[in-house]
Amino acid sequence: MSLMPLETGAQGFDSGRITDAEGGAMLRAVLTLFGKWDITDEQGATLLDLPLRTYRRWKAGQPGRLDRDTRARLSNILGIHKALRILFSEPQRAYGWIKAPNSAFAGETALAIMLRGELTDLMRVRRYLDAERGAW
């Protein structure tokens, strides 16, 4: 999904923007997912590129404004989750995959790749999973 504002179509529907409400829902979903992945606050802050204090405030239910980078990070993390749920029928295997060594990442875990902190690191894991599941 493109995160850039797109021109509105014939019916006036803007299909490219993530609204504030959608961003808030995405944040809540990702925070729940981090619990399933057993992600520490420090790791969560790194994955979302937030100061630890801000991450903890958001986790406590007091989110601030989601900028474009944060929305892109949320989108990629949810894309990773979606791909894992498609690839694995057992939820626990899907949740555990990110912490398992992977030959596609030279023996590193997907989490180790994502914790490098760049948006492109999240995108790398997502692209790998999309290719594995036969995405477009």
In short:
The longest helix has 20 residues, at 68-87.
Could you tell me the mean pLDDT? 86
Please report the number of helical segments: 7
Q: In sequence order, what are the helices and strands, one letter per element?
A: HHHHHHH
Radius of gyration from the alpha-carbon trace, in angstroms: 15 Å
Give a count of the beta strands, DSSP E runs of length 2 or more.
0
Number of domains: 1
- Characterize the main sheet: none
| Category from helices, strands and their pairing | mainly alpha
Distance between the termini: 12 Å
Molecular shape:
globular
Amount of helix = 55-70%
Relative strand content: under 5%
Which stretches are poorly predicted, pLDDT < 50 over at least 5 residues? 1-15
Write a structural description.
With 136 residues, this protein is mostly helical. The chain has one domain. The protein has helices at residues 20-37, 41-48, 52-59, 68-87, 91-97, 110-114, 119-132. The longest helix has 20 residues, at 68-87. The radius of gyration is 15 Å and the shape is globular. The model is unreliable at 1-15 (pLDDT under 50).
Ordered list of secondary-structure elements with their pairings:
Blueprint: H1 20-37, H2 41-48, H3 52-59, H4 68-87, H5 91-97, H6 110-114, H7 119-132
Helix pairs in contact: 1-4, 2-3, 4-5, 4-7
